[in-house]
Protein backbone atom coordinates (compact mmCIF):
# COMPACT_ATOMS: atom_id res chain seq x y z
CA UNK A 1 0.00 0.00 0.00
CA UNK A 2 1.34 3.46 -0.83
CA UNK A 3 1.60 6.24 1.75
CA UNK A 4 -1.55 7.89 0.37
CA UNK A 5 -3.57 4.84 -0.54
CA UNK A 6 -5.83 5.04 2.49
CA UNK A 7 -6.50 8.79 2.24
CA UNK A 8 -9.87 10.02 0.99
CA UNK A 9 -10.32 11.33 -2.53
CA UNK A 10 -10.18 15.07 -3.12
CA UNK A 11 -11.84 17.46 -5.53
CA UNK A 12 -10.15 18.41 -8.79
CA UNK A 13 -7.46 21.08 -8.94
CA UNK A 14 -8.79 24.67 -8.99
CA UNK A 15 -8.97 25.97 -12.54
CA UNK A 16 -6.56 28.87 -11.97
CA UNK A 17 -3.88 26.42 -10.80
CA UNK A 18 -4.57 23.98 -13.64
CA UNK A 19 -4.30 26.73 -16.26
CA UNK A 20 -1.07 28.08 -14.80
CA UNK A 21 0.64 24.68 -14.73
CA UNK A 22 -0.74 23.90 -18.18
CA UNK A 23 0.69 27.13 -19.63
CA UNK A 24 4.07 26.22 -18.14
CA UNK A 25 3.80 22.63 -19.50
CA UNK A 26 4.27 21.19 -16.03
CA UNK A 27 2.80 17.77 -15.32
CA UNK A 28 1.30 17.10 -11.91
CA UNK A 29 -0.56 14.42 -10.01
CA UNK A 30 -3.34 15.15 -7.54
CA UNK A 31 -2.59 13.74 -4.08
CA UNK A 32 -4.85 13.89 -1.01
CA UNK A 33 -3.11 15.47 1.96
CA UNK A 34 -2.49 12.93 4.70
CA UNK A 35 -0.41 12.79 7.93
CA UNK A 36 1.58 9.84 6.56
CA UNK A 37 3.10 11.98 3.81
CA UNK A 38 6.75 12.91 4.30
CA UNK A 39 6.89 16.55 5.52
CA UNK A 40 10.26 16.94 3.77
CA UNK A 41 8.39 16.71 0.45
CA UNK A 42 5.72 19.26 1.39
CA UNK A 43 6.35 22.82 0.24
CA UNK A 44 5.34 25.44 2.81
CA UNK A 45 4.60 28.84 1.25
CA UNK A 46 4.43 32.14 3.12
CA UNK A 47 4.21 35.75 2.03
CA UNK A 48 6.41 38.17 3.97
CA UNK A 49 6.20 41.94 3.97
CA UNK A 50 8.20 45.04 4.88
CA UNK A 51 8.50 48.64 3.69
CA UNK A 52 10.21 47.47 0.48
CA UNK A 53 7.43 45.08 -0.58
CA UNK A 54 6.21 41.47 -0.57
CA UNK A 55 8.42 38.38 -0.78
CA UNK A 56 7.23 34.79 -1.29
CA UNK A 57 9.28 32.31 0.73
CA UNK A 58 9.17 28.56 0.11
CA UNK A 59 10.58 25.93 2.45
CA UNK A 60 9.98 22.32 3.43
CA UNK A 61 7.57 21.44 6.23
CA UNK A 62 10.34 19.44 7.89
CA UNK A 63 12.01 22.78 8.63
CA UNK A 64 11.27 25.92 10.62
CA UNK A 65 11.61 29.29 8.89
CA UNK A 66 14.15 31.24 10.97
CA UNK A 67 13.46 34.95 10.49
CA UNK A 68 16.82 35.89 12.01
CA UNK A 69 18.73 33.85 9.46
CA UNK A 70 16.52 35.21 6.72
CA UNK A 71 17.28 38.77 7.81
CA UNK A 72 21.01 38.03 7.78
CA UNK A 73 20.68 36.52 4.30
CA UNK A 74 18.65 39.27 2.57
CA UNK A 75 19.36 42.28 4.76
CA UNK A 76 15.66 42.86 5.44
CA UNK A 77 13.69 42.11 8.61
CA UNK A 78 10.35 40.87 7.32
CA UNK A 79 7.14 39.67 8.94
CA UNK A 80 4.11 37.73 7.75
CA UNK A 81 1.75 39.57 5.42
CA UNK A 82 -1.31 40.83 7.30
CA UNK A 83 -4.17 38.27 7.15
CA UNK A 84 -6.59 40.71 5.47
CA UNK A 85 -4.09 41.49 2.68
CA UNK A 86 -3.35 37.79 2.18
CA UNK A 87 -7.08 37.02 2.02
CA UNK A 88 -7.55 39.73 -0.62
CA UNK A 89 -4.82 38.15 -2.79
CA UNK A 90 -6.32 34.67 -2.40
CA UNK A 91 -9.86 35.93 -3.12
CA UNK A 92 -8.70 37.38 -6.43
CA UNK A 93 -7.59 33.88 -7.44
CA UNK A 94 -10.58 32.11 -5.91
CA UNK A 95 -8.35 30.14 -3.53
CA UNK A 96 -8.43 29.33 0.19
CA UNK A 97 -4.73 28.61 0.78
CA UNK A 98 -1.50 29.99 -0.64
CA UNK A 99 0.11 27.55 -3.11
CA UNK A 100 3.88 27.42 -3.49
CA UNK A 101 3.68 28.78 -7.04
CA UNK A 102 5.66 32.03 -7.48
CA UNK A 103 4.07 32.71 -10.87
CA UNK A 104 0.67 33.01 -9.18
CA UNK A 105 1.74 35.99 -7.05
CA UNK A 106 3.51 38.88 -8.73
CA UNK A 107 6.35 39.13 -6.21
CA UNK A 108 10.00 38.04 -5.82
CA UNK A 109 10.56 34.54 -4.45
CA UNK A 110 13.18 32.98 -2.20
CA UNK A 111 13.31 29.23 -1.58
CA UNK A 112 15.14 27.02 0.91
CA UNK A 113 17.93 25.00 -0.67
CA UNK A 114 16.79 21.83 1.14
CA UNK A 115 13.76 21.62 -1.16
CA UNK A 116 15.89 20.53 -4.11
CA UNK A 117 17.07 17.41 -2.26
CA UNK A 118 13.68 15.77 -2.92
CA UNK A 119 13.00 13.90 -6.18
CA UNK A 120 9.32 14.92 -6.04
CA UNK A 121 7.59 17.72 -4.18
CA UNK A 122 4.06 18.28 -2.90
CA UNK A 123 2.56 21.75 -3.36
CA UNK A 124 -0.77 22.98 -2.01
CA UNK A 125 -3.43 23.17 -4.70
CA UNK A 126 -4.97 26.18 -2.97
CA UNK A 127 -7.69 24.27 -1.12
CA UNK A 128 -7.58 22.30 2.16
CA UNK A 129 -6.67 18.64 1.76
CA UNK A 130 -5.39 18.98 -1.82
CA UNK A 131 -1.76 18.62 -2.89
CA UNK A 132 -0.09 18.51 -6.27
CA UNK A 133 2.91 16.25 -6.81
CA UNK A 134 5.52 17.51 -9.29
CA UNK A 135 9.07 16.45 -10.09
CA UNK A 136 12.16 18.27 -8.86
CA UNK A 137 12.98 19.26 -12.44
CA UNK A 138 9.57 20.87 -12.94
CA UNK A 139 9.85 22.57 -9.55
CA UNK A 140 13.15 24.11 -10.69
CA UNK A 141 11.36 25.47 -13.74
CA UNK A 142 8.78 27.11 -11.48
CA UNK A 143 11.65 28.76 -9.63
CA UNK A 144 13.65 29.99 -12.62
CA UNK A 145 13.42 33.62 -11.45
CA UNK A 146 13.66 32.83 -7.73
CA UNK A 147 16.66 33.03 -5.42
CA UNK A 148 17.94 30.19 -3.25
CA UNK A 149 19.30 30.34 0.28
CA UNK A 150 19.76 28.49 3.55
CA UNK A 151 17.49 29.95 6.23
CA UNK A 152 15.63 26.96 7.69
CA UNK A 153 16.25 24.92 10.82
CA UNK A 154 15.48 21.16 10.71
CA UNK A 155 12.74 20.35 13.20
CA UNK A 156 14.60 17.15 14.01
CA UNK A 157 17.46 19.27 15.40
CA UNK A 158 15.21 21.00 17.97
CA UNK A 159 14.95 18.83 21.05
CA UNK A 160 12.38 19.35 23.81
CA UNK A 161 13.64 18.45 27.27
CA UNK A 162 11.07 16.54 29.32
CA UNK A 163 13.48 15.33 31.99
CA UNK A 164 15.85 18.19 32.87
CA UNK A 165 15.77 20.81 35.64
CA UNK A 166 13.40 23.55 34.45
CA UNK A 167 14.82 26.14 36.84
CA UNK A 168 18.33 25.69 35.47
CA UNK A 169 17.09 25.70 31.88
CA UNK A 170 15.18 28.95 32.40
CA UNK A 171 18.19 30.55 34.09
CA UNK A 172 20.39 29.61 31.14
CA UNK A 173 17.86 31.05 28.72
CA UNK A 174 17.56 34.29 30.70
CA UNK A 175 21.32 34.68 30.97
CA UNK A 176 21.71 34.10 27.24
CA UNK A 177 19.65 37.24 26.64
CA UNK A 178 21.19 39.48 29.31
CA UNK A 179 24.62 40.90 30.04
CA UNK A 180 24.83 38.85 33.25
CA UNK A 181 27.15 35.88 33.17
CA UNK A 182 26.97 34.79 36.79
CA UNK A 183 25.38 31.69 38.17
CA UNK A 184 22.33 32.59 40.23
CA UNK A 185 19.06 31.00 41.15
CA UNK A 186 16.21 31.89 38.80
CA UNK A 187 14.35 33.94 41.39
CA UNK A 188 17.48 36.11 41.80
CA UNK A 189 18.15 36.36 38.07
CA UNK A 190 14.74 37.71 37.07
CA UNK A 191 12.17 39.67 39.01
CA UNK A 192 9.11 37.47 39.38
CA UNK A 193 5.80 38.91 40.55
CA UNK A 194 4.90 37.83 44.10
CA UNK A 195 1.94 35.54 44.65
CA UNK A 196 -0.98 37.81 45.51
CA UNK A 197 -2.53 37.45 48.97
CA UNK A 198 -5.92 36.88 47.34
CA UNK A 199 -4.46 33.83 45.58
CA UNK A 200 -3.05 32.53 48.85
CA UNK A 201 -6.46 32.88 50.49
CA UNK A 202 -8.14 31.06 47.62
CA UNK A 203 -5.56 28.27 47.75
CA UNK A 204 -6.18 27.85 51.48
CA UNK A 205 -9.91 27.56 50.82
CA UNK A 206 -9.30 25.07 48.02
CA UNK A 207 -7.35 22.77 50.32
CA UNK A 208 -9.98 22.92 53.07
CA UNK A 209 -12.50 20.06 52.68
CA UNK A 210 -14.89 21.79 55.10
CA UNK A 211 -14.89 25.22 53.46
CA UNK A 212 -18.19 27.07 53.80
CA UNK A 213 -20.15 29.17 51.32
CA UNK A 214 -19.74 32.18 53.60
CA UNK A 215 -15.94 31.88 53.49
CA UNK A 216 -15.86 31.69 49.68
CA UNK A 217 -18.35 34.54 49.35
CA UNK A 218 -16.22 36.68 51.65
CA UNK A 219 -13.06 36.15 49.56
CA UNK A 220 -14.84 36.82 46.28
CA UNK A 221 -16.58 39.95 47.53
CA UNK A 222 -13.30 41.52 48.67
CA UNK A 223 -12.24 41.72 45.00
CA UNK A 224 -14.80 43.82 43.06
CA UNK A 225 -13.55 42.64 39.66
CA UNK A 226 -13.77 39.00 40.73
CA UNK A 227 -17.22 39.48 42.24
CA UNK A 228 -18.46 41.09 39.03
CA UNK A 229 -16.97 38.22 37.02
CA UNK A 230 -18.68 35.56 39.14
CA UNK A 231 -22.02 37.37 38.88
CA UNK A 232 -21.60 37.79 35.12
CA UNK A 233 -20.77 34.13 34.53
CA UNK A 234 -23.65 32.92 36.67
CA UNK A 235 -26.04 35.18 34.73
CA UNK A 236 -24.78 34.11 31.30
CA UNK A 237 -26.89 32.07 28.90
CA UNK A 238 -24.26 29.31 29.02
CA UNK A 239 -25.39 28.31 32.52
CA UNK A 240 -29.05 28.92 31.71
CA UNK A 241 -30.04 30.26 35.12
CA UNK A 242 -33.82 30.19 35.58
CA UNK A 243 -33.97 33.37 37.65
CA UNK A 244 -32.09 36.58 38.26
CA UNK A 245 -28.79 36.30 40.16
CA UNK A 246 -28.86 38.89 42.97
CA UNK A 247 -25.64 38.19 44.90
CA UNK A 248 -22.33 36.35 44.86
CA UNK A 249 -23.83 33.80 47.24
CA UNK A 250 -26.70 33.30 44.79
CA UNK A 251 -24.18 32.71 41.99
CA UNK A 252 -22.29 30.11 44.02
CA UNK A 253 -25.20 28.22 45.56
CA UNK A 254 -27.70 28.23 42.70
CA UNK A 255 -25.57 28.19 39.54
CA UNK A 256 -21.80 27.78 39.57
CA UNK A 257 -21.03 25.66 42.61
CA UNK A 258 -18.12 25.87 45.04
CA UNK A 259 -15.45 24.14 42.91
CA UNK A 260 -16.06 26.20 39.78
CA UNK A 261 -16.05 29.51 41.68
CA UNK A 262 -12.80 28.66 43.44
CA UNK A 263 -11.19 27.61 40.15
CA UNK A 264 -12.41 30.74 38.35
CA UNK A 265 -11.20 32.92 41.22
CA UNK A 266 -7.80 31.25 41.27
CA UNK A 267 -7.35 31.41 37.49
CA UNK A 268 -8.44 35.04 37.27
CA UNK A 269 -6.25 36.09 40.21
CA UNK A 270 -3.20 34.33 38.75
CA UNK A 271 -3.92 35.83 35.32
CA UNK A 272 -3.94 39.32 36.84
CA UNK A 273 -0.45 38.69 38.25
CA UNK A 274 0.89 38.80 34.69
CA UNK A 275 -0.90 41.06 32.23
CA UNK A 276 -1.81 39.90 28.73
CA UNK A 277 0.93 40.86 26.24
CA UNK A 278 0.10 43.65 23.81
CA UNK A 279 1.77 41.77 20.96
CA UNK A 280 0.23 38.54 19.69
CA UNK A 281 0.66 36.33 16.62
CA UNK A 282 -1.69 37.28 13.79
CA UNK A 283 -4.87 35.17 13.69
CA UNK A 284 -4.05 33.54 17.04
CA UNK A 285 -6.76 32.29 19.37
CA UNK A 286 -7.07 34.89 22.17
CA UNK A 287 -5.53 33.79 25.48
CA UNK A 288 -8.69 33.52 27.61
CA UNK A 289 -10.72 32.05 24.76
CA UNK A 290 -8.15 29.26 24.34
CA UNK A 291 -8.13 28.70 28.11
CA UNK A 292 -11.89 28.51 28.49
CA UNK A 293 -12.41 26.28 25.44
CA UNK A 294 -9.73 23.91 26.74
CA UNK A 295 -11.16 23.86 30.27
CA UNK A 296 -14.67 23.17 28.95
CA UNK A 297 -13.45 20.26 26.80
CA UNK A 298 -11.40 18.85 29.69
CA UNK A 299 -14.40 19.02 32.00
CA UNK A 300 -16.44 16.98 29.52
CA UNK A 301 -13.61 14.48 28.95
CA UNK A 302 -13.12 14.02 32.70
CA UNK A 303 -16.80 13.25 33.22
CA UNK A 304 -16.64 10.78 30.30
CA UNK A 305 -13.86 8.79 32.01
CA UNK A 306 -14.69 5.64 34.01
CA UNK A 307 -15.60 6.71 37.53
CA UNK A 308 -12.90 4.55 39.16
CA UNK A 309 -10.05 6.29 37.30
CA UNK A 310 -11.55 9.76 37.09
CA UNK A 311 -9.33 12.49 38.63
CA UNK A 312 -10.72 15.48 40.49
CA UNK A 313 -12.92 17.36 38.02
CA UNK A 314 -12.19 20.74 39.58
CA UNK A 315 -8.42 20.26 39.32
CA UNK A 316 -8.57 19.07 35.70
CA UNK A 317 -10.75 22.06 34.82
CA UNK A 318 -8.23 24.37 36.51
CA UNK A 319 -5.44 22.69 34.54
CA UNK A 320 -7.29 23.66 31.38
CA UNK A 321 -7.74 27.26 32.48
CA UNK A 322 -4.05 27.61 33.35
CA UNK A 323 -2.47 25.36 30.70
CA UNK A 324 -1.09 28.32 28.72
CA UNK A 325 0.05 30.38 31.71
CA UNK A 326 3.65 30.08 30.54
CA UNK A 327 2.71 32.25 27.56
CA UNK A 328 2.17 35.19 29.92
CA UNK A 329 5.42 34.46 31.74
CA UNK A 330 7.30 34.24 28.44
CA UNK A 331 6.15 37.76 27.54
CA UNK A 332 7.01 38.98 31.05
CA UNK A 333 10.54 37.53 31.19
CA UNK A 334 11.61 38.03 27.56
CA UNK A 335 9.84 41.23 26.42
CA UNK A 336 12.32 42.15 23.65
CA UNK A 337 12.21 38.64 22.23
CA UNK A 338 8.53 37.85 22.67
CA UNK A 339 7.75 39.81 19.50
CA UNK A 340 10.25 37.68 17.60
CA UNK A 341 8.51 34.54 18.85
CA UNK A 342 5.16 35.94 17.62
CA UNK A 343 6.61 36.65 14.17
CA UNK A 344 7.99 33.10 13.92
CA UNK A 345 4.63 31.63 14.95
CA UNK A 346 3.02 33.56 12.08
CA UNK A 347 5.34 32.20 9.38
CA UNK A 348 5.54 28.63 10.74
CA UNK A 349 1.92 27.46 11.12
CA UNK A 350 3.08 23.86 10.66
CA UNK A 351 5.38 23.98 13.71
CA UNK A 352 4.39 23.75 17.39
CA UNK A 353 5.05 26.81 19.53
CA UNK A 354 7.19 24.66 21.85
CA UNK A 355 9.70 23.89 19.09
CA UNK A 356 9.81 27.53 17.99
CA UNK A 357 10.45 28.71 21.55
CA UNK A 358 13.05 26.01 22.12
CA UNK A 359 14.84 27.05 18.93
CA UNK A 360 14.82 30.78 19.71
CA UNK A 361 15.23 30.78 23.50
CA UNK A 362 16.33 27.32 24.56
CA UNK A 363 13.21 27.10 26.76
CA UNK A 364 9.49 26.58 26.23
CA UNK A 365 6.47 28.25 27.81
CA UNK A 366 5.51 24.88 29.32
CA UNK A 367 8.79 24.68 31.23
CA UNK A 368 8.44 28.26 32.45
CA UNK A 369 4.79 27.88 33.43
CA UNK A 370 5.39 24.64 35.34
CA UNK A 371 8.38 26.13 37.15
CA UNK A 372 6.37 29.16 38.27
CA UNK A 373 3.52 26.91 39.44
CA UNK A 374 5.99 25.13 41.72
CA UNK A 375 7.71 28.36 42.76
CA UNK A 376 4.35 29.73 43.86
CA UNK A 377 3.43 26.54 45.67
CA UNK A 378 0.56 25.52 43.40
CA UNK A 379 -0.61 21.87 43.53
CA UNK A 380 1.74 19.37 41.90
CA UNK A 381 -1.06 18.21 39.60
CA UNK A 382 -1.16 21.68 38.02
CA UNK A 383 2.58 21.88 37.47
CA UNK A 384 2.60 18.41 35.90
CA UNK A 385 -0.40 19.24 33.70
CA UNK A 386 1.34 22.38 32.42
CA UNK A 387 4.76 20.76 31.97
CA UNK A 388 3.77 17.63 30.04
CA UNK A 389 0.67 18.85 28.18
CA UNK A 390 2.23 18.21 24.75
CA UNK A 391 3.60 14.75 25.53
CA UNK A 392 0.93 12.20 24.52
CA UNK A 393 3.15 9.39 25.83
CA UNK A 394 3.49 10.74 29.38
CA UNK A 395 2.78 8.00 31.94
CA UNK A 396 4.43 9.46 35.05
CA UNK A 397 2.92 10.74 38.30
CA UNK A 398 -0.61 12.15 37.97
CA UNK A 399 -0.53 11.36 34.25
CA UNK A 400 -4.29 11.87 33.83
CA UNK A 401 -3.90 15.65 34.23
CA UNK A 402 -1.43 16.31 31.38
CA UNK A 403 -3.05 13.55 29.32
CA UNK A 404 -6.41 15.33 29.50
CA UNK A 405 -4.85 18.67 28.51
CA UNK A 406 -2.99 16.99 25.65
CA UNK A 407 -6.15 15.32 24.36
CA UNK A 408 -8.24 18.49 24.66
CA UNK A 409 -5.65 20.58 22.82
CA UNK A 410 -5.33 17.97 20.07
CA UNK A 411 -9.09 17.76 19.59
CA UNK A 412 -9.45 21.55 19.46
CA UNK A 413 -6.50 21.90 17.08
CA UNK A 414 -8.17 19.44 14.73
CA UNK A 415 -11.12 21.86 14.71
CA UNK A 416 -8.92 24.85 13.88
CA UNK A 417 -8.57 26.22 17.43
CA UNK A 418 -5.04 26.82 18.71
CA UNK A 419 -1.61 27.00 17.07
CA UNK A 420 0.02 24.29 15.01
CA UNK A 421 -1.09 21.83 12.38
CA UNK A 422 -3.73 19.24 13.18
CA UNK A 423 -2.31 15.77 13.73
CA UNK A 424 -3.57 12.27 14.51
CA UNK A 425 -4.15 11.62 18.22
CA UNK A 426 -2.59 8.31 19.38
CA UNK A 427 -4.95 5.50 20.32
CA UNK A 428 -2.92 4.97 23.50
CA UNK A 429 -3.93 8.39 24.83
CA UNK A 430 -7.63 7.55 24.55
CA UNK A 431 -7.02 4.12 26.07
CA UNK A 432 -5.14 5.48 29.12
CA UNK A 433 -7.99 7.87 29.85
CA UNK A 434 -10.69 5.27 29.19
CA UNK A 435 -12.46 7.55 26.69
CA UNK A 436 -13.44 6.45 23.19
CA UNK A 437 -12.82 8.66 20.16
CA UNK A 438 -16.55 8.95 19.60
CA UNK A 439 -17.17 10.15 23.16
CA UNK A 440 -14.28 12.61 22.90
CA UNK A 441 -15.57 14.05 19.62
CA UNK A 442 -19.05 14.33 21.15
CA UNK A 443 -17.57 16.39 23.99
CA UNK A 444 -15.87 18.77 21.55
CA UNK A 445 -19.01 19.08 19.46
CA UNK A 446 -21.02 20.03 22.54
CA UNK A 447 -18.46 22.69 23.48
CA UNK A 448 -18.36 24.11 19.95
CA UNK A 449 -22.15 24.30 19.89
CA UNK A 450 -21.81 26.81 22.72
CA UNK A 451 -18.99 28.67 20.93
CA UNK A 452 -20.72 32.06 20.87
CA UNK A 453 -21.51 31.91 24.59
CA UNK A 454 -18.01 30.75 25.48
CA UNK A 455 -16.49 33.61 23.48
CA UNK A 456 -18.65 36.08 25.35
CA UNK A 457 -17.53 34.59 28.65
CA UNK A 458 -13.87 34.69 27.55
CA UNK A 459 -14.24 38.35 26.60
CA UNK A 460 -15.68 39.12 30.06
CA UNK A 461 -12.88 37.16 31.69
CA UNK A 462 -10.26 39.15 29.80
CA UNK A 463 -11.76 42.46 30.93
CA UNK A 464 -11.88 41.59 34.63
TrEMBL record:
InterPro entries in alphabetical order = HDOD, RNase_Y/CdgJ, UCP036888_HDGYP-like, YbaK/aa-tRNA-synt-asso_dom_sf, YbaK/aa-tRNA-synth-assoc-dom
Domain of life of the source: Bacteria
Which residue range or ranges hold the HDOD domain?
A: 192-392
Q: Which Pfam families does the entry mention?
A: HDOD, tRNA_edit
SUPFAM superfamilies linked to this entry = HD-domain/PDEase-like, YbaK/ProRS associated domain
Name this polypeptide is given: HD-like signal output (HDOD) domain, no enzymatic activity
Per the UniProt record, the source organism is Pseudomonas psychrophila
Amino acid sequence: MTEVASAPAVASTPSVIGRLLGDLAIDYREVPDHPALDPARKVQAVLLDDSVGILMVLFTQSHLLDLNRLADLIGRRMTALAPDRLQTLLDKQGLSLLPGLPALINSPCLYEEQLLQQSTLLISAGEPGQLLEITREDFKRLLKNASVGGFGEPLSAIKLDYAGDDGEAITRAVQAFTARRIQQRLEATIELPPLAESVRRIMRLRSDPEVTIDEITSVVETDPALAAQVMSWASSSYYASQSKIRSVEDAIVRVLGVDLVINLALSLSLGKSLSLPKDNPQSSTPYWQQSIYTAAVIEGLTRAMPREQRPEVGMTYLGGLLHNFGYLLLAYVFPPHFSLICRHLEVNPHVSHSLIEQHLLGISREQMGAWLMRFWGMPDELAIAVRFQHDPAYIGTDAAYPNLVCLALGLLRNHGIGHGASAPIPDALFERLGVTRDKAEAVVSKVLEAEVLLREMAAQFGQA
